[in-house]
Design brief:
With 319 residues, the protein is of the alpha+beta class. It contains 9 helices and 10 strands. It has a domain of 125 residues: D-amino Acid Aminotransferase, Chain A, domain 1. A 6-stranded mixed β-sheet has the order 8-7-6-5-9-10. Strands 1-4-2-3 form a 4-stranded antiparallel β-sheet, with helices on one face. Strand 5 and strand 6 form a beta hairpin. Helix 2 packs across helix 3 and helix 4 packs across helix 9. It is globular and about 55 Å long.
Amino acid sequence: MKKFIDKIKFSPVFRKLVVFINSHFPVYMAKRRQKLYFNKEFDVNNPQDLNEKILWLSLFTDTSEWTRLTDKYAVREYVKECGLEDILIPLYGHWDDPKKIEWDKLPKSFVLKSNNGASANTVKIVRDKDTLDIPKVTEEMGEWLTHKIGMETTEFHYLGIKPCLIAEKLLKNDATLNNISKTLIDYKIWCFNGKVSEIWTCTNRTLDGADVATFDLEWNYHPEGSVFNHDYRQQGVLVPKPLNLDEMIKVAEKLSKPFPVVRVDLYNISGKIYFGEMTFTSNGGTMDFYTHKHLMELGQQIDLSGCKKDRVNRPRIIQ
């Protein structure tokens, strides 16, 4: 069924239909997606697993703060508010128009990304600026800014982000970890009601997928909760436990404290922790890389009793 969905979902006509129905009947579309992906009914009055609770929050609660913290530029201010300015990746600049970028003022290597991107498709790693086709990249980034995420899912908080571009320092793994990952190791930390539950590491990440592994807080490996496929492959060589794991957990819990569910993504370079992003709707609430049992286990850790049901603040689309 998933292959069928993947085959038709990129059809222009189909996507226009989805956008129309989703904008008018988001609860209905959320139920249909759960049925198509997992062949199960989504009881919006009694969400149980991780996907369902993420969807419930996105459909029925005020997600205006999600908008600010999903914005890869605006979230920097929140990190500062939490007293964690030292974990921010050095910023070289931000622009609302790629034609305004002063390329001569940027260093030889850096990372370009859109502030409202939700995938690697809106990130460009520049290792040598002198080899960059600037006109081509400028055109590509202009397209990034016109793409509106959230139109086809319940991720309405993306629609309130005013698009811009940012340039950050290019981080690199320790040389000792190059045998594990050719790309920057991503520590994705699941937090529920301000407490860390588990850490999901991603290595060798490309547009074709990533090698992944789940660890508990003692860094014990737990493959039994994962569903490995061509997008999410089982790590051949596991990421070693960071020496400052306790500090990473403290950082994640401080950032996640106000929220029932959020994934805090961090990097760790030679013991130096860097902030990546905060994700409130992983895979749009259709995570199929975890087993049903594990999704239920994670969902049962989330307490929604303090959440006020209120959808009056759904973000409008920023033009």
